[in-house]
Recover the amino acids of this structure.
């Protein structure tokens, strides 16, 4: 029998998003979360980035199930791409599975979904997984206490310690303390907000900030943009709309979807008759619009409003627009472009830099200290963050008495064997990015690399016909450039190089495919001098 539990990091370490960790003991494997990462500017045209599951495929017979901490995209978003292939039971709370089910339906796939509630324990092979309530920015979030044959692994998931949560469900510190008192072998702790001092602000503060806006703008239409998955935020807006006699218009497909799912599973109370089908003839002071697009997404409702091409809502001087979010790193320019456009249309725009209209769902430094102090793990691994976040979380653990030798900062693809006596690194497994562009791309890295080159250096098309009987070029080469300037001098040099390469080839030994590769190689050398690397596409045909 195995002497240690393998902890296999397939995503969510050294990065924000794409969370996925596998636990393996003997002949059993479970997966914790299976999330997506949204691409930044360095992945042009890519819809999503998901984890590489090569190791799971190779050990598919050992896989016993997938457990989900909560329903945010970075924890469940990759499952629709892998559910058919993995075909194992998936466990999560009602809202988590409700959102996942909707995503599965969009892709036309199904999964074995098993609903749990806080406090439930499920057995998957040799693993017993207990779901423990934690507060977060959405309902149904859980930490996981995984009992293995040789010790307990505690996974915090995304959490905060909110003493006045909207639904009254606090982080279950008592149960976490009980688990810690019995002994925890390893803790995997989220690190997202480790750089923020003190403690996070309660979600109720946003409600107070929004109410101030409702009162101060009683004669205007109010547009609030927030994450569709922030059901607590949406709940407070619905309550305020009811209190101040306004109807609510939901703008954006994902916003309508989350309201439908969350209300159906009992995690959102929608006052009767408050949702309006559209703006209609209702005066501005009688309307609240809840919109997607708080991150400046190009096709989102708010972005389209800011550009004036959203047919349901036309923004102007009668509107107050509230961005109830913080820009995710990398999205700042998109967000501020939207804000600028809204101001240009005459709207009054309120965002976090000016008012308390957003709070984080992730624990700050003091909350991370509390969690570590309650769990008291023998070994600690900071996760869910870039390296600097993990490093600072490790420093906190050291300040609380955890030995330096008992702390590991993991990277994607790394595997660690853990027992109550030691942590040892094993050989790495295949891991990294798999790219989605409508479908999962088989060689996504090459596709993305080509797109980067196209964006930065452009493309060069070389067309040439050859007389295979004589072994020479027939006519002159055509050279077409896109994305960069091609001077007459360089064009002639390229054409001459193509001619020299073709005429110098052994046509008896090499076919047209090999000839095209030789042309590409020769032309590429011309651009190395100036450190230019356009995509070169040679097309060689027989005359």
């Amino acid at each position: 029998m195995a002497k240690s539990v393998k902890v296999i990091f397939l995503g969510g370490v050294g990065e924000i998003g794409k969370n996925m960790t596998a636990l393996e003991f003997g002949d059993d494997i479970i997966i914790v979360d299976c999330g997506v990462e949204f691409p930044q500017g360095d992945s042009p045209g890519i819809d999503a980035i998901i984890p590489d599951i090569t190791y799971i495929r190779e050990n598919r017979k050992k896989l016993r199930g997938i457990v989900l901490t909560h329903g945010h995209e970075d924890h469940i978003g990759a499952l629709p791409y892998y559910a058919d292939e993995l075909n194992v039971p998936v466990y999560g709370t009602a809202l988590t599975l409700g959102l996942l089910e909707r995503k599965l339906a969009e892709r036309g796939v199904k999964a074995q979904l098993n609903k749990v509630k806080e406090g439930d324990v499920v057995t998957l092979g040799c693993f017993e997984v207990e779901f423990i309530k934690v507060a977060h920015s959405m309902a149904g979030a859980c930490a996981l206490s995984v009992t293995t044959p040789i010790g307990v692994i505690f996974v915090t998931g995304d959490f905060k310690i909110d003493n006045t949560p909207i639904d009254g469900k606090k982080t279950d510190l008592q149960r976490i303390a009980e688990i810690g008192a019995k002994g925890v072998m390893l803790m995997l702790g989220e690190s997202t907000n480790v750089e923020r001092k003190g403690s996070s602000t309660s979600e109720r503060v946003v409600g107070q900030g929004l109410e101030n806006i409702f009162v101060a703008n009683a004669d205007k239409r109010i547009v609030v943009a927030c994450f569709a998955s922030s059901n607590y935020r949406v709940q407070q807006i619905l309550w305020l709309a009811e209190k101040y006699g306004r109807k609510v218009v939901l703008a954006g497909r994902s916003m309508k979807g989350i309201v439908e799912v969350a209300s159906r599973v009992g995690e959102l109370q929608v006052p009767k008759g408050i949702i309006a089908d559209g703006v209609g003839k209702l005066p501005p002071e009688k309307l609240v619009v809840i919109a997607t697009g708080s991150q400046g997404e190009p096709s989102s409702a708010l972005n389209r409003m800011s550009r004036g091409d959203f047919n349901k809502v036309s923004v102007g001087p009668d509107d107050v627009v509230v961005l109830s979010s913080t820009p995710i790193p990398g999205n700042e320019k998109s967000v501020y472009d939207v804000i600028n456009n809204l101001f240009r249309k005459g709207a009054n725009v309120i965002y976090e830099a000016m008012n308390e209209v957003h709070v984080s769902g992730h624990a700050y430094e003091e909350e991370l200290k509390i969690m570590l102090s309650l769990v008291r793990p023998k070994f600690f691994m900071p996760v869910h963050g870039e390296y600097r976040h993990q490093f600072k979380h490790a420093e906190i653990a050291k300040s609380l008495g955890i030995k330096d030798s008992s702390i590991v900062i993991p990277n994607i693809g790394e595997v660690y064997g853990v027992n109550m006596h030691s942590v040892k690194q094993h050989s790495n497994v295949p891991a990294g990015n798999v790219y989605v562009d409508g479908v999962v791309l088989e060689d996504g890295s090459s596709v993305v690399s080509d797109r980067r080159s196209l964006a930065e250096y452009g493309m060069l098309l070389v067309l040439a016909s050859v007389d295979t009987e004589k072994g020479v070029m027939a006519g002159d080469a055509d050279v077409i450039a896109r994305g960069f300037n091609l001077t007459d001098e360089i064009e002639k040099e390229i054409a001459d190089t193509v001619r020299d390469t073709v005429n110098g080839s052994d046509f008896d030994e090499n076919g047209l495919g090999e000839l095209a590769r030789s042309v590409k190689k020769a032309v590429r050398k011309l651009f190395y001098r100036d450190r230019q690397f356009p995509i070169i596409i040679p097309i060689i045909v027989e005359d």
